[in-house]
Specification:
Elements (H helix, E strand, L loop, with lengths): L19 H11 L4 H8 L3 H8 L7 H11 L3 H4 L19 E3 L2 E5 L8 E8 L14 E8 L2 E5 L2 E5 L4 E5 L4 E5 L5 E8 L18
Antiparallel strand pairs: 1-2, 2-3, 3-9, 4-7, 4-9, 5-6, 5-8
Amino acid sequence: MTDPAAIGGHDPATEALPDVAPQLRELRRGRGLTLEAAAARAGLSPAHLSRLETGRRQPSLPMLLGLARVYGTTVSELLGEEPPERDPVIRAARAEPVEADGWIYRQAGSSSGRAMQPLRVTVPYGAQGDLVRVHPGEEWIHVLQGRLRLGLGDAVHVLGPGDSAHFDSMTPHRLAAAGPDAAELLFVHTLLTSPTAELCLPGGAHRR
C-alpha cells in the first residue's frame, strides 16, 4: 500500500490519531530506550519507528499493540487518551472508532491498571491479511458478524458469528476477513506492564 505522505499527498487517517507521534517519542525517552533499541524490540526498523514518532507514518493496530508491550503501557496511553477511572461500564457513545492501517477498533473496556485490554475490532476484507504476529501473552477472539480467517501456526481456521478462539499468542498468528464483507469481532489480549515486555519478539510483517 502506498504511503500518501511519501508522495506528498494527504492521509486523512493521520487525523484520527493526533497524539500518537508525540506520545511514542515521549514514552520511548521516558523508558530510557534509544530509537534503535526500541525499534528492535518492536520488530521495526529504526527508520520506520522514526517516521511513526514524527507523524510521517500511520501506525497499524498491531504496531500499536507491539509498542505498548515494549513500553509497558496500553494502546489508550499511546493514543493520549484519558482512560475512565476504573469505570466498569463503557457506553457505546464513548467508544469512538479509531482507524489504523485499514482496521477500525473501539475500546470495549478500561485497561487502566488491569491485566488485559478488550477491543471491538472491524477487519475489512484485504486488510493486513499477510501480517504475522508473535508476542508473549494470550488472545481471545469472538466473532460478532462476518467470517474471520485465523491462521495459527500451520493451521487455518474459518470462524463465523458466535465462534471463538483462545490461544497462546507466542503461536504465530494471522487475522483476516474470510469473505468480501468485513468481519467484526471482540478481541481481548493480555497486557505486559513490567520489564518482561523486553522479551517481546519481533512482530513485523513476514510474508509467506
